[in-house]
User: What shape does this take?
Amino acid sequence: MAFADFERRWIVAILSGFTAPEGALPVADDEVDYVHAAEVMAAGSRFKARVGLRVAVWVFALAPAWALGRPQTLDEVPAATRSALLARLLEHRVYGVRGLATLLKLVASLAMMRAPAIRARSGYDRAAEAQTRASRHALPIVGAQGVGA
Assistant: This one.
């Protein structure tokens, strides 16, 4: 699914709003390709999921208008306001809003984990490798004859 240029701007504004340069896992501007991650997720999804992703982008892009009463899109508000608004929407009283926020946060997380520099800083690969080594020895091998064969 191809996103329009304005939707691409919205995607970057929304997904980057879930991270902060000074957070526990700092993310610099232009370090993560949020649009590519959204396009990959949309391309690999069924029709309903693709529609849901696009609806989520539109709902959150227009969130300043309906949640703050500002006639702006999310890419037009300051980064601090954007992050605070997204945090509020993750805890919104309406389940559908929370669900769409969680979907977008998932896309942001997947986009971040595609960036090699962020994976290195997070230690994700080292932890996954250690877990894999530990699990190799934790379970018995099942052969054609049964356990331990």
